[in-house]
């Protein structure tokens, strides 16, 4: 009798476990399939877009009329950005796949630059035409490789989840078809050196000639430690550790870690080797309450910059985050604001001490400039903006435009409805270089967080 | 009998006086700004008062949220223009004096509306009670005439204290916050999640560095262009892959993200980083290394 009950319970238990296991298994499979489908979609989208890209570049080559050229180039730009997105969704980040991504980015930049240009005034040069032809051929190669991979994937029912597994278990030799296929694509791209892009092609990525304007002699580790001591203001209690930059850095710098032995506060700082300029400084400490106003803090920031020989700066932005004030300064050259020369200063609102400083952008771009006289008057510049915008404030400014060139602009602050806009009109040509909608305060969604 | 009535009347009058006098005194005292010069970007009670007073005159039409944004800035400049003062967009002593003289500010009413999350305005010449609307979820039919409310607070001293501290605590929480250009609070939250999941054991500077790498990737042409795109890129961050990103981040992680967004990049433009003790990919070692912060090596 007892045995019967026991067996019954056991059977029930086994059956229950089996059922539960089956449910789990099904759920897991559903999720796996879902993830797999996402990868598949991204991959097939990618190949489709490369096809499209190739076709579109081909048509631009055949085009003569400028009116049709601009929209098509814009189209190319759109497709590259989509293709780029799809690459980003594939689990390839740890594969050396960056060359292909770079290639896509370059086509994108090139098409964008040429699409936004007024091709009537500045038609494609022979060099650019050559670049375009080159891109056309290269995209053909990539298209071919990708199609091969796609064919293999479809033919053999390959799954991206297997790629994931293969990548995750590094010990196995990576002989996965997909991985091999993508490695071939990567090699194909790698063989196009940058010079094939043509000499006029300027990379739109961040400037790589870092800190080229800096002057002065190289400093030693000791001097770097000295500078850091001065910035931290820890005095006798400071414990300083200096490290040199790694080999991969584009420029020489020292990283200094300063610990206050008494208060146990940590400060960090990077200093350029050449000239010993402070790139950034950051002190980490709690700021629990506000005792001084943002305005007082901004005066402290101004004084700090003066004390450290940063001159001709305008306060451009001030913002309070909890009990910390963050200020952005830009160079003011004869009443022209130079926006690329930005310095950020962080001030604690409890005692007004400087707890952070970043001159990264300033050091990279600040140099003696010949600011030209504006060809357009403010009056003329106003005519170029949307008539619905109510002009509130005007001035002159140097900005870096979409083509990565410094241009002199009329800066117009205006309102439209409840929003404020900052509009830059090129002072030479009257082109609307940039329109920014300025950030409004965001409501706090307390229930969400 | 009539004597009893008289005593009662006197008693009522005295109590009413005792209640009313402190109320009016309190309002008067609280009605003036503190000493600070208020400037663009500031947050707090003075900004609430500034916005209310500017709205009283019809210069400010936005929401009274306690954050000195562009709307407040233009309103203040217009006020300075109309009243013949130097137009600098700063609320200094002279500006504040003129504002106080020209306007009335019902602090209790404004604070009360803010604390209740009501939709309200503070225009002069209109009954304040007609200028508010309770949020839809709050079942907007609470009796809200300010008189009985203040009376309730008065009698026992201990109670009053409590009520005041409560009032203060609530007032310190503004209903809006400054956010850096181009990022929403949710973006910041998401990045804080990623930073916390990836680098919660690191020193503060190491957390800023991880946030900076996320931003450098957003800017880089070879990575996705959004915070979520970069963070959720498959296999990009281990914390995303193993679910640690959904741990609740602490305040420090959030501060690190804010610092990175506001222009601090401790990494020297790094796009990758790895922990040499746990890195599984051989490829990452081939990247040019810039520097080491905490346990992480940052590379291009």
What features would you describe in this structure?
The complex is a heterodimer of chains A (449) and B (300). Chain A is α+β, with helices and mostly antiparallel strands. Chain A is built from 10 helices and 13 strands. In chain A, strands 1, 2, 3, 4, 5, 6, 7, 8, 9, 10, 11 and 12 form a 12-stranded mixed β-sheet that branches. In chain A, helix 1 runs antiparallel to helix 4. Mean pLDDT of chain A is 81; it is low at 194-208. Chain B is mainly alpha-helical. Helices cover 49% and strands 6% of the residues of chain B. In chain B, strand 5 and strand 6 (296-299) form a beta hairpin. In chain B, helix 8 (185-199) packs across helix 9, helix 8 packs across helix 12 (251-261) and helix 9 packs across helix 12 (251-261). The model of chain B is unreliable at 20-30 and 137-172 (pLDDT under 50). Classes of the chains: A alpha+beta (449), B mainly alpha (300). Chains A and B meet through helix 2, helix 3, helix 5, strand 2 and strand 3 of A and helix 3, strand 3, helix 9, strand 5 and strand 6 of B. Strand 13 (442-443) of chain A pairs antiparallel with strand 3 of chain B, so a sheet runs across the interface.
């Amino acid at each position: 009798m007892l045995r019967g009950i026991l067996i019954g319970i056991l059977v029930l238990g086994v059956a229950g476990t089996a059922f539960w296991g089956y449910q789990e298994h099904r759920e897991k499979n559903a999720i796996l399939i879902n993830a797999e489908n996402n990868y598949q979609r991204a991959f097939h989208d990618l190949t489709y877009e490369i096809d499209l890209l190739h076709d579109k570049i081909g048509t631009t080559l055949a085009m003569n009329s400028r009116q049709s050229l601009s929209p098509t180039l814009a189209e190319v730009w759109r497709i590259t950005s989509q293709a780029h997105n799809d690459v980003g969704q594939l689990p390839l980040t740890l594969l050396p796949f960056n060359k292909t991504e770079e290639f896509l980015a370059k086509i994108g930049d090139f098409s964008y630059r040429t699409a936004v240009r007024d091709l009537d005034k500045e038609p494609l040069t022979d060099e650019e035409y050559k670049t375009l032809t080159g891109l056309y051929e290269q995209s053909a190669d990539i298209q071919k490789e990708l199609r091969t991979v796609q064919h293999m994937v479809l033919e053999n029912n390959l799954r991206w989840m297997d790629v994931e597994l293969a990548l995750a278990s590094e010990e196995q030799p990576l002989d996965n078809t997909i991985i091999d296929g993508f490695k071939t694509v990567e090699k194909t791209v790698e063989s196009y050196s940058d010079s094939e892009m043509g000499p006029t092609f300027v990379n739109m990525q961040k400037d790589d000639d870092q800190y080229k304007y800096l002057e002065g002699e190289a400093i030693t580790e000791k001097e770097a430690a000295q500078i850091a001591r001065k910035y931290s203001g820890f005095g006798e209690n400071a414990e300083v550790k200096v490290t040199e930059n790694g080999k991969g850095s584009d420029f020489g710098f020292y990283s200094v870690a300063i610990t206050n032995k008494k208060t146990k506060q940590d400060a960090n700082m990077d200093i350029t080797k050449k000239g010993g300029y402070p790139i950034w400084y950051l002190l980490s400490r709690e700021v629990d309450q506000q005792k001084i106003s943002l305005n007082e803090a901004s005066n402290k920031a101004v004084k700090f910059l003066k004390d450290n020989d940063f001159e001709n700066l305008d306060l451009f932005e001030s913002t309070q985050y909890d009990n910390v004030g963050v200020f952005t300064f830009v160079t003011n050259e004869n009443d022209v604001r130079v926006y690329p020369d930005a310095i950020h200063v962080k001030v604690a609102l409890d005692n007004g001490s400087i707890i952070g400083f970043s001159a990264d952008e300033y050091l990279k771009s600040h140099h003696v400039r010949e600011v030209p006289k504006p060809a357009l008057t403010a009056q003329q510049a106003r005519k170029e903006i949307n008539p619905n915008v109510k002009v509130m404030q005007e001035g002159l400014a140097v900005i870096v435009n979409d083509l990565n060139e410094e241009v002199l602009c009329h800066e117009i602050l205006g309102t439209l409805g409840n929003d404020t806009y900052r509009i830059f009109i090129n002072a030479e040509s009257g082109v609307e270089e940039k329109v920014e909608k300025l950030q409004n305060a965001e409501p706090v969604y307390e229930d969400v967080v | 009998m009539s004597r009893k009535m008289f005593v009662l009347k006197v008693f009522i009058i005295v109590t009413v006086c005792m209640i009313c006098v402190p109320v009016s005194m309190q309002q008067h005292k609280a009605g003036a700004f503190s000493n600070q010069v208020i400037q663009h970007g500031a947050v707090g009670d003075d900004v609430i008062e500034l916005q209310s007073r500017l709205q009283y005159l019809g210069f400010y039409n936005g929401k009274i949220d306690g954050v000195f944004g562009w709307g407040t800035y233009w309103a203040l400049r217009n006020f300075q223009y109309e009243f013949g003062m130097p137009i600098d967009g700063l609320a200094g002593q002279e500006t504040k004096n003129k504002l106080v003289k020209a306007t009335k500010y019902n602090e209790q009413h404004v604070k009360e509306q803010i604390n209740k999350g009501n939709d309200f305005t503070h225009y002069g010449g209109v009954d304040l009670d007609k200028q508010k609307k309770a949020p839809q979820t709050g079942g907007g039919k609470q009796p809200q005439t300010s008189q009985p409310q203040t009376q309730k607070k008065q009698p026992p001293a201990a109670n009053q204290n409590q009520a005041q501290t409560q009032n203060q605590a609530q007032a310190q929480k503004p209903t809006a916050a400054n956010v850096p250009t181009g990022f929403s609070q949710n973006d910041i939250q998401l990045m804080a999640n990623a930073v916390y999941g990836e680098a919660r054991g690191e020193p503060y500077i190491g957390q800023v560095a991880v946030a900076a790498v996320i931003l450098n990737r957003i800017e880089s042409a070879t990575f996705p262009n959004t915070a979520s795109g970069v963070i959720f890129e498959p296999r990009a961050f281990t914390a995303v892959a193993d679910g640690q990103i959904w741990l609740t981040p602490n305040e420090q992680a959030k501060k690190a993200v804010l610092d990175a967004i506001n222009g601090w990049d401790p990494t020297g433009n790094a796009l990758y980083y790895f922990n040499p003790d746990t890195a599984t990919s051989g490829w990452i070692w081939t990247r040019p290394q810039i520097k080491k912060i905490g346990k992480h090596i940052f590379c291009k």
